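Bump. Still looking for DUF3127 domain-containing protein structure tokens.
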Amino acid sequence: MELKGKIILDLGAVSGTSKAGNNWKKHEYVLETQETYPKKVHFDFFGDNADRYQLNVGDDVTLSFDIESREYNGRWYTSIRGWKAETAGQQPMSAPAMPQGADFPPAPIAPDGGSDSDLPF
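Sorry for the wait, here they are.
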């Protein structure tokens, strides 16, 4: 799922050790959507993503996330776990440009350097 908005709060990083003895880390943020009726959304990045995506208050971002719910002592808790964030200043990766004046990419050459003999023309 994706959501676009502006980071309005950086709640900081939290880390600890699980019952199994594994170290964990998460970084929490609040994003505000830019709609007619803006919504505030609390989300986090967990594990390696906590360090990979460093967002700042005021950043316009497109957040890719999963929603996860779990039960604890008869109550249900839901979290929004981000797995990718792109700030407005980032340019998406694009395909390599074709040479100027080319309408289409060049055809691949057969491995023997000649033409394919099974073509009907």
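The chain has one domain: 2-87.

Edit: fixed formatting.
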